[in-house]
């Protein structure tokens, strides 16, 4: 299946690293290299591992030879430009300031990233300044991501402004950032807490999480070196609109293709049953689900972003539910998941698992 192979290929480089290291997992435990992340939410959720393995962000070496990630340090605007350039696998290939910004000096470490971000239309600055060493606010990061979508990938970032009403501090969002913040909430890049904190500085851990989800969402288009016309994550019915985290969930699930079926299993070490694989995948995205296909469907119906009962309305990345079974919809009438005893996690035809009860995504 072409689309499945295309999405699986996103992780081929990271998988090669894992094989070279002799690991049985698809991604190496990069977080174990850092002395300052043990027990941090970004470490336990796997966000740091994924961000480093994807080349989005790294750590820094200390004088004693150890490495630190500094998860709670604030991200500067220059650092955010560098992270997004890493997502795009882009380069400006110069150490000379080629922008109109008067506060970017030749030869500084971030000049290439600022050149790239300006050329890509991601950072525009104001009054001739881009403030590279100022801390980046959460709403500024949301705007940078939507600029990337529209100017690098030619994708439309949409989000209903009414979604912001659920957060008491939505009145603090700058008018110029509201569309981007609405998109970020709709895409579940933001909104996991009771407040949005739009004007608060983004931490390195928060930026890593947002960029990991964003990188998963845009898929192949993120690494096209800055050309237009990126992929929308395999969902041909979305007409270039990016939203939801179903695509990100499928990307993670595909790492476990070929893993053995184990009744009651919910980890790479033991193997998976159908709902165990779904529960494990969504835990990597910060969503806690029960270990039961029926209960997972109830949670999706109650708090998901969409739920449909017509097969024709399914989209790439949807969870699909049947009597006693759940899987990931991967397009063209096919689903991926933990199948049954003796059959490893793999792709099958949706029609094999009738009757269809419904599907959707968070």
Descriptive keywords:
362 residues, alpha+beta, endopeptidase fold (from Nostoc punctiforme), 2 domains, six-stranded antiparallel beta sheet, 12 strands, globular, disordered N terminus
Structure description:
The chain contains twelve helices and twelve strands. It has 362 residues and is α+β, with helices and mostly antiparallel strands. The relative contact order is 0.12. β9 and β10 form a beta hairpin. Mean pLDDT is 80; it is low at 1-29 and 220-243. The chain folds into two domains: 72-242, no CATH class; 246-361, endopeptidase domain like (from Nostoc punctiforme) (endopeptidase fold (from Nostoc punctiforme)), CATH 3.90.1720.10. The longest helix has 15 residues, at 204-218.
List the helices and strands and how they pair.
Layout: H1 2-8, H2 12-20, H3 41-44, H4 47-53, E1 60-61, E2 67-68, H5 77-88, H6 111-119, H7 138-151, E3 156-157, H8 178-186, H9 204-218, E4 241-242, H10 246-253, E5 266-267, E6 271-272, H11 274-283, H12 293-303, E7 306-308, E8 319-322, E9 325-329, E10 334-337, E11 346-349, E12 356-361
Parallel strand pairs: 3-4
Antiparallel strand pairs: 1-2, 5-6, 7-12, 8-9, 8-12, 9-10, 10-11
């Amino acid at each position: 299946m072409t689309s499945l192979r295309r999405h699986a290929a996103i992780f081929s480089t990271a998988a090669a690293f894992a094989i070279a290291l002799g690991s049985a997992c698809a991604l190496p435990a990069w977080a174990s290299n850092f002395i300052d992340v043990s027990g941090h939410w970004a470490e336990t959720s796997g966000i740091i591992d994924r961000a480093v393995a994807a080349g989005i962000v790294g750590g820094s070496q200390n004088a004693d030879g150890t490495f630190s990630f500094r998860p709670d340090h604030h991200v500067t605007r220059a650092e955010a430009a560098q992270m997004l350039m890493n997502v795009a696998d882009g380069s400006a290939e110069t150490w000379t300031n080629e922008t109109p910004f008067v506060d970017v000096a030749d030869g500084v470490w971030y000049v290439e990233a600022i050149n790239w971000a300006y050329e890509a239309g991601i950072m525009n600055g104001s009054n001739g300044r881009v403030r590279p060493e100022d801390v980046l606010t959460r709403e500024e990061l949301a705007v940078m991501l939507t600029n990337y979508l529209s100017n690098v990938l030619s994708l439309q970032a949409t989000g209903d402004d009414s979604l912001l009403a659920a957060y008491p501090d939505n009145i603090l969002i700058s008018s110029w950032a509201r569309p981007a913040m609405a998109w970020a909430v709709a895409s579940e890049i933001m909104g996991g807490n009771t407040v949005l904190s739009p004007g608060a500085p983004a931490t390195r851990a928060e930026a890593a999480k947002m960029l990991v989800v964003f990188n998963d969402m845009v898929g192949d288009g993120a690494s096209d070196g800055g050309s237009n016309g990126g992929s929308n994550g395999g969902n041909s019915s979305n007409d270039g609109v990016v939203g939801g985290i179903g695509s990100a969930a499928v990307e993670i699930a595909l790492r476990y293709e070929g893993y053995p079926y184990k009744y009651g299993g919910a980890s790479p070490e033991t193997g998976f049953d159908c709902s165990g694989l779904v529960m494990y995948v969504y835990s990597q995205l910060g969503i806690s689900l029960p270990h039961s296909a029926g209960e997972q469907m109830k949670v999706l119906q109650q708090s998901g972003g969409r739920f449909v009962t017509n097969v024709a309305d399914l989209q790439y990345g949807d969870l699909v539910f049947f009597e006693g079974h759940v899987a990931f919809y991967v397009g063209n009438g096919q689903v991926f998941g933990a199948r049954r005893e003796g059959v490893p996690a793999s792709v099958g035809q949706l029609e094999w698992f009738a009757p269809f009860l419904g599907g959707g995504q968070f």
